[in-house]
Give the backbone structure.
Amino acid sequence: MKVILAETAGFCYGVERAVNLARETAKARGGAMLGSIVHNAGVVREIEDLGMRLITSPDQAKAGETVLIRAHGESRATLDALRERGAEVVSAVCPHVERIRKLAQEAEHEGRRVILIGERHHPEVQGIAGWCSDPLIFENVQEAQKYLQEHPDFAHLPSIMLAQTTCIRALWESCVKFLKKQCTNLKINDTICNATQKRQTEAAELSAKVDAMVVVGDRRSANTRHLTEICRENCGKVLQIESADELSPEFFSGCRVAGLTAGASTPASIIMEVLTTMTEENINTTAPETSESFEELLEKSFKTLNTGDKVTGIVTAIGTTEIQVDVGCKQAGYIPVSELSSDPDVKPEDVVKVGDEIEAYVVRVNDVEGYATLSKKRLDAVKLWEDIETAVEDKTVLEGTVTEVNKGGIVVSVKGVRVFVPASQSGMPKDSDLGQMVKQKVKLRVTEVNRAR
Ligand code: SF4
């Protein structure tokens, strides 16, 4: 049996970051983690062995003790309770979750009611809701429909839609489709995180081409459960397990190809064990179908960005203030709308759409928060200059529009670059009125480039 391992299986960067912070804090200060740092008993035990105890309520924190907040985040009331007890809070909250909290608070500040699409009792949803004054939580489109039937006036009130980071895309889209039609003043922010999106897309594609699919992850993990649901839509034989002990040769009977993926909180060691067992379960085993080793794949998923890098990524969400780009690194990439195009009036959706491949420059990396600010505008400008320089070398004829007359000649805009044409080269008779050329399209050859000016 051939086993295909999903490239996205295992820790996402948010979980990796939280676990590393827990390890460092445990070693340096001991302290406590409020709730399991990840849905994995082995990892929690490891952190406990390093000196950090597990507490389940702020009341259990001691005065002066360091308390680690996990990637899902906590409500304002919980953080207040910890501070009141004199605990020192260390945040391992994933930047994607932090961003949702900020969006929710900003929207409430603008007078909008927050609508969260996600699992009502999930700690992340509870945490975000705990920063809002009166949020609505819908687990599916039916709940949204029921609410609108019972509260028809809500359709005309200002509101904002936000998604749990691990929400199933199809579920989110069905809610968007319905609420967009009903609500007249609705802001929509797709906040499904790029790591989740990539993992779900790969799981859907992989499960559609294999005979059996194995999903590894803790039963309490929402993103693992969602992966299983997605795989079941595409494959008749899907098994969700927590460890290799739950595998049996009977499950794979008659299978030629099996797929393997894992939730965001599944450690690499467990995935490795499952992979090894799956390949050993069958007599005719072959190596997993991947050109890279598992360690190489993990390494790739944790590659980092540096300021000044040119990156290629996939647009995963378009918001009113920024465009989310998956650059295949541990940091999330964002292009502020002001860095998208040199045209200040351009609408983001006119320039890019979700799923587009996009190139950009890294202008700032925030390692603490785990995101990178990107600029397409700056890369476009550099490319433009390169195009003009090539045109000079190749003696290519370019086209532009005359924008102004100045001392000694005219200025022509060629793809946004100002090109000066001396009066003697304008093609107009000496001493004629060059003003009549303004707004006219002209053809020209550039003979000299000066980027500094
Ligand atoms: S799944 Fe996404 S939001 Fe959740 S911790 Fe990982 S990166 Fe962050």
Remarks:
- Residues 12-15, 71, 94, 96-97, 165-166, 193, 195-196, 223, 264 surround iron/sulfur cluster (CB under 6 Å).
- The longest helix spans residues 376-394.
- The radius of gyration is 27 Å.
- The CA atoms of residues 26 and 50 lie 6 Å apart.
